[in-house]
Write a structure and sequence with these properties.
Order of helices and strands of chain B: EEHHEHHH
Largest interface: A-B, 25 and 20 residues
Number of helices of chain A: 4
Structural class of chain B: alpha+beta
Largest sheet of chain B: 3 strands, mixed
Oligomer: heterodimer
Strand content of chain B: 5-15%
Distance between the termini of chain B: 26 Å
Number of strands of chain A: 30
Helix content of chain A: under 10%
Strand order of the largest sheet of chain A: 6-5-1-30-29-28
Radius of gyration of chain A: 21 Å
Radius of gyration of chain B: 14 Å
Chain lengths: 420, 115
Amino acid sequence: HQEPREELGPRAGKRNARVGEEPLLLAELKPGRPHQFDWKSSCETWSVAFSPDGSWFAWSQGHCIVKLIPWPLEEQFIPKGFEAKSRSGKNETKGRGSPKEKTLDCGQIVWGLAFSPWPSPPSRKLWARHHPQVPDVSCLVLATGLNDGQIKIWEVQTGLLLLNLSGHQDVVRDLSFTPSGSLILVSASRDKTLRIWDLNKHGKQIQVLSGHLQWVYCCSISPDCSMLCSAAGEKSVFLWSMRSYTLIRKLEGHQSSVVSCDFSPDSALLVTASYDTNVIMWDPYTGERLRSLHHTQVDPAMDDSDVHISSLRSVCFSPEGLYLATVADDRLLRIWALELKTPIAFAPMTNGLCCTFFPHGGVIATGTRDGHVQFWTAPRVLSSLKHLCRKALRSFLTTYQVLALPIPKKMKEFLTYRTF
Amino acid sequence: MDGEKKTYGGCEGPDAVYVKLISSDGYEFIVKKQHALTSGKIKAMLSGPGQFADNESDEVHFREIPSHVLSKVYALCMYFMYKVRYTNSSTKIPEFPVAPEIALELLMAANFLDC
């Protein structure tokens, strides 16, 4: 179906939006030439990702292609084959491409993406023998989750295919690397399992995590690398230990498929998003449900359709841990401040599927069903010293360790995010 | 550390560039007034009744805070500088690092000073 292209840009006067905090569209990349419909490929952008150091951006643009572009995006380096519409000019710029950009042809629909830093040898000495072109400097790898269950691992600077991981029997919907750079990869699949792969051992499959009853939609490893969250179609969210690869607990509460999950930067909070129109915020250490963010209250003045479908597609934390971005089927990108019950800002976004924050803040990237990618301004945050201290402490203290500290009750409530 | 007059800017009079923060056990910490005022609490204590700007020096007595907590003043001042620098500016805000070993005590001070 053809959707009329919507006017995208700043919209003033939205309910609940603080002045200057509406996400403003910085740039949009869309395929320059619409592809012939091919039943084997589709044009959705199922995933977008920034590398942890913020130097690269990747998106699975449909038609089996993953595009890798250096970040920040410069006007003269709009990716080849794309048009860009930026906030500065109304004219669309045709892409000529940066010399560094890479196009990865994965051969099938790409569903999941994840970056990892690839630290220097000795792990890479093995590669150098078989792939002399692999650069000597510390670099990045990108894992791509494919339609038939394969996972391809690519080296980012050269676009070289390094590994093919086989094991999954169905779509690999989501991928997550350990943030520590230890090259352990977790994959989530429609075959109802998660798998753990060790890229230090040529991608050896070291564990299969079973238990989900339906498609596993997403997985996320906590920033302190201790926990793994997975969410599936049977409405449940599972928390696994990344040390023993065993199930810690099940989080019940959603009323429909849970499709997206993310940990806060200090690992103290977990958010999950579902087709039931809610985002739930949990304490991953105790399993307690802290709050629910409802996506049904849409200002009728803004929504000119009769249908209020607000299934969630994606949720992510901002890098300093004070905001959330959500993408829902009611054609809105919402920004939430953690301590409030309603969004602080909205931006119109049709057919949104995924979102992610730039790791150093300031920008949110989103992907849509028609293969477009947008970049939005994120709220500019100057964290309070209280929050900065909380974030530093929670990066290594569990909820139980906080509760055992010799501090006043109000301080414990603040530290465990019961109060803000 | 015992009330001896220091030689920088001066803590007395309306043009005082610095203020003196005094802990419960008598230690004195001298910080730039402009930065100390980013704390709502200090600002209130400096401008509240009983403070005569032209007669007395700008001093704040923290009767409940011992020196080992107020010694995080250095970290507090770094934060005050950071806040002043990036508030009402359009430049990108870098992350402010907090060392894990002082984070708990710094949190107590930040909570008391409401910053």
